[in-house]
Specification:
By secondary structure, this protein is an alpha+beta fold. The protein has one domain: 3-Layer(aba) Sandwich (Aminopeptidase). Strands 1-4-5-6 form a four-stranded antiparallel sheet, sandwiched between helices. The radius of gyration is 15 Å and the shape is globular. 31% of the residues are buried.
């Protein structure tokens, strides 16, 4: 069974181990905590994740962002992030949701299931009528995940597809 849990101190060791596996930038998903030691993660990174989810200590131009870990039984297999509302840089940028599935867990439907769980949470958080997502054109697996979760390609540029999911189409 899959569950989403917000970043928290109770699961710090497993969260740290997982975040340590996320590349600095893979397919447009960035990991600002790449290379952090456990001490840095415990005293800076995780407190920052929690503060940002509460809208505290945000850098200029940032919006609140909640970090969720996707758990399969007692193992973290993915990370999903919900940016609570759009600002100009997110409209043509990363949008509301970003996600990463551990490499050895890919091609098992975890991205789609995790995105569906995240969309349930996003429905309550995001004030806009559409959920904005973006993926690189050379990442067809991510595009398939977004489309299978109810998204449609809104537009594209040379590098990205911009996908929108209508909130009203999400299950109540």
């Amino acid at each position: 069974m899959l569950t989403l849990k917000e970043a928290n101190f109770q699961d710090i060791q497993k969260e740290y181990d997982f975040v340590r596996e996320i590349p600095e930038n893979e397919n447009g998903f960035t990991n600002a905590y790449f290379g952090a030691s456990f001490d840095e993660f415990a005293h800076f990174c995780l407190p920052q994740m929690i503060a940002w989810s509460e809208g505290r200590d945000l850098p200029n131009g940032f919006v609140p962002e909640t970090f969720y870990f996707l758990w399969e039984k007692d193992e973290i297999v993915g990370q999903f992030r919900i940016r609570h509302y759009l600002c100009p840089s997110l409209i043509e940028g990363g949008g509301h949701i970003g996600y990463f599935i551990r490499k050895d867990k890919r091609n098992r439907g975890l991205g789609k299931k995790g995105l569906l769980l995240t969309l349930e949470k996003a429905r309550e958080i995001i004030p806009e009528d559409e959920i904005y997502l973006r993926t690189l054109k050379d990442n067809p697996a991510s595009l398939r995940v977004m489309l299978s979760a109810g998204g449609c390609i809104h537009h594209e540029d040379g590098e990205h597809y911009y996908v929108r999911i209508q909130k009203q189409k999400l299950a109540q």
